[in-house]
Amino acid sequence: MASVQNAAATFDFLAVNCVPESHVWTEQKDYPVVPESAGNDAVPVVDMADGTDGAIVAVARAAEEWGGFLLVGHGVPIELLALVEEQIKCLFARPVPEKERAARGGGFKNGYGVPPYAIYFSKLMWSEGYTFSAADVRSEFRRIWPDGGNDYLRFCDVMEEFHKEMRAFGDKVLDMFYKALGLSADQIAGGEVERQIRDTLTATMHLNMLRATIARYPKCPEPERAIGLAAHTDSGFFAFIMQSLVPGLQLLRRGPERWVTVPALPGALAVVIGDLFHVLTNGRFHSVLHRAVVNQDRERVSVPYFLGPPKDMKVAPLDAAILQGSKAAFRAVTWPEYMVVREKTFGKDASALAMLRATEDEGDAELVQDMNN
Questions:
Q1: β-pairing, 45-47 with 68-72?
Q2: 3-state DSSP call for residue 208?
Q3: What is the distance in angstroms between the CA of the first residue and the CA of the last residue of the chain?
Q4: Exposed, middle or buried: residue 194 (CB in 10 Å: 0-12, 13-18, 19+)?
Q5: Is the backbone peptide bond immediately before 256 cis, with ω within 30 degrees of 0?
Q6: What is the tens place of the pLDDT at every residue in 39-59?
Q7: Gap between the Cα atoms of 311 and 93, Å rounded
Q8: What pTM was computed for the model?
Q9: Integer angstrom CA distances of residue 149 from 142, 145, 155
Q10: How many CB atoms lie within 10 A of CB 214?
Q11: 3-state SS track over 125-186
């Protein structure tokens, strides 16, 4: 496990002219890829600046039919997004020994390396990343810059400003989702559960140089033989993904299954719905399987900003999401409980959400039984 977790810290992507066997990806179902986002396979683009009910209707349709979409007119400064991308590139360009100081492992969920779920696959992904709590930027990145300095201060200032903007943005999008479920502004403000969710949203970032997480996807000499990020669903409520102007994020469309590449629109933020939001909305807004592919000519950077519940909150379908005459389709679950169930399904033809399906007279005790099996 440790060798997989630290693989990104020990592999020099720029030093190879072919994909080594360790990174040749065969552990994925080979669905066709739609060559471009168009027609019935045009990834929805919602303009938040619209300020009308039309934007709410568009969000509802996109969440129901796709599980992911692009947001423009969101109000997050374009200049800030450019600074974030610049700082991520500077971080990943640092010498390997410096990044290795922050390698994930030994019980650390945060830090530099491959995505945590990579340990469930025998092959390695063509990417390097850094996962951290958005509220702990300065303490976390002392692992990279133990002596501080101007580079450290600049990086932290930019990431903290990004967190501030994205957290406020998260509240706006959550309210859009609530309205898409049919709740009025008064119901949102007065609803105990709705208000508790908004007040306690927790944020994690991943930096990808190819999840805050931040990530980098380096140029790949044989992109058809590698994968930047294996197909997966996110576990939390939803994620905003800031990506550089290099396409690579793909969403799986159903009936028939095919991968659709999300356009890299300047200034747009991608929204990807996670499994616990699927539960919260009783399956109306569905989580989406997604992945990241690489290309031969350009590296790609992405920053997924994940929002989810606190660890001790039981997530169950909202009353507003349960249609009249229907019942809750899922059992109540905390995020840690769900992760135990989810880990059992990695690399298998099994669904963690299916294991949360409620049946007649079913209670939380059966979830505990599933977790222990």
A1: parallel
A2: strand
A3: 22
A4: buried
A5: yes
A6: 889 999 999 987 678 999 999
A7: 34
A8: 0.90
A9: 10, 8, 10
A10: 29
A11: CCCEEEEEEHHHHHHHCCCCCCCCCHHHHHHHHHHHHHHHHHHHHHHHHHHHHHHHCCCCHH
Instruction: Please provide residue 324's backbone torsions phi and psi, each rounded to the nearest 5 degrees.
Output: -55, 130
Report d(CA 237, CA 274) in Å as an integer: 5
Q: Identify the band that residue 115 occupies on the pLDDT scale cut at 50, 70 and 90.
A: confident
Helix intervals (H) in 11-69: 53-65
CB 286 within 8 A of CB 149: no
The strand ranges marked E within the chain are 33-34, 45-47, 68-72, 111-113, 128-133, 202-209, 213-217, 229-232, 238-243, 249-253, 258-261, 269-273, 290-292, 300-308
Alpha-carbon gap, residue 4 to 121, rounded angstroms? 9
CA–CA distances in Å: residue 34 to residues 13, 41, 157, 210, 228:
28, 8, 39, 20, 18
The number of C-alpha atoms within 13 Å of 328 and in the hemisphere containing its C-beta is 17
**Residue position matching structure tokens 């990174």:** 23
pLDDT digits (tens, 9 = 90+) for 254-280: 888 999 999 999 999 999 999 999 999
